[in-house]
Amino acid sequence: MSQNTDKQIHRASSVWTALEIVGDKPTLLLLESYWLGIRRFSDFCTQTGLLKTVVSDRLKKLIAVGCLQKKTYSTKPLRYEYRGTEKLLGMYPLALSMLYWEYQWGQRPEKINLQLTHKNCRNISTPIPKCLACRAPLHSRDVDWVIERVEIQDGVKPYSRRRKSNLVLKQRQIALFDEIADVIGDRWSALIIRCLFTRLNSFQAIQQDTQMATNVLSERLRLLLAKQIIAKTKQLSSRHMRYKLTQKGQDIYPVMLALMEWGSRWPTDHLDPTISLVHRPCGCRLKMRIACSACDQELLPKEVTFTLDGTSLSDTESAG
Ligand SMILES: [Zn+2]
Ligand SMILES: [Zn+2]
Question: Closest ligand to 300 CA?
Fold first, then answer.
């Protein structure tokens, strides 16, 4: 294969599709607020600490991609609120897998007071990602990736550029997706992590796969090293430096899986999902379910409430 053709080959997948929408920190903060029960514009601004213009822009985008709908709740004066569609409710496993990661690796101690209650079993619950078929907890080491490559025609931009966002004005009151939003909300970082899960681990391989500018790649690798999500493996020369995921990085796996499942269910472009996963312990094609740590039933949006110091924050019964 010529070098020229090589340049036009990307590893297209549903993770990319999903990151087109959620690989953006302000969007993730809005989604976090939504799961906490927020539906109105001014409340989104207060909870996220984002600039009004940013909130307005991202809500519009979420409407445009079919995740939110604007509904009138008062005619005099005219007032709207935002309601999640089925597509947005389909992101619930993603939200829970991000929360799962925060419970394990999140840094801020004040979050300890935030609890998730499973209404069905009435227990305080921790979301546990599991294999739908055999119900074993998921570990990336147990999953085989079967990857195909697809060609992207000239002129088709596989991945849109977006401004770097540093638009959060103040600390959020309640932060569910705190550190994980920095990682998944930056699509380049998320793509690097995805490469490492698919065993592309050298600078060159990651660069070729993602088509990232080398200075951007260097910067993101530095950032991920500083967050201890990745580590360097020993190499003879720095030119051939290789990277691996630490345990903290490995635990992002359910988040990647949720992105992939959501992206393949709601494709937004012409690219077909090109990765299939096999759960080695049971031999099944992998599908994830997020189970309650107390009763092992699947956690569904309608059956979960968030409580802070014993006060209920949200009841997602009305979601959708
Ligand atoms: Zn299984
Ligand atoms: Zn339960």
Answer: 2
Closest CA to 83 of 146, 23, 38, 16: 38
d(CA 106, ligand 2 centre) in Å: 23
Residue whose pair of structure tokens reads 């550029």 in the numeric block: 161
- In angstroms, the CA 212 to CA 146 distance is 23
In this prediction, residues 205-222 reach a mean pLDDT of 91
Residue 320: which pLDDT band, with cuts at 50, 70 and 90?
A: very low
What ligand has the least distance to the C-alpha of 132?
1
Question: How far is the centre of ligand 2, averaged over its atoms, from the C-alpha of 48 (Å)?
Answer: 29
DSSP string, 248-310: HHHTTHHHHHHHHHHHHHS--SSPPP-EEEEETTTTEEP-EEEEETTT-PBP-GGGEEEEETT
Q: Could you tell me the two tokens for 180?
A: 């994980």
pLDDT reading at 210 higher than 60: yes
The pTM score is 0.78
CA of 143 to the centre of ligand 1 (A): 9
The label of the residue with tokens 């409340």 reads 43
Q: Which amino acid is at 302?
A: K
pLDDT-based confidence at residue 310 (cuts at 50, 70, 90): low
Ligand nearest to the CA of 303: 2
Residues 269-302 have pLDDT tens digits of 544 445 667 889 999 888 888 999 999 999 888 8
Q: Relative to the alpha carbon of 123, which ligand is closest? A: 2
Give the C-alpha separation, 19 to 194, whole Å. Answer: 11
Rg (CA), the chain: 20
Residues with CB under 5 A from ligand 2 (ion): 118, 121, 292, 294-295
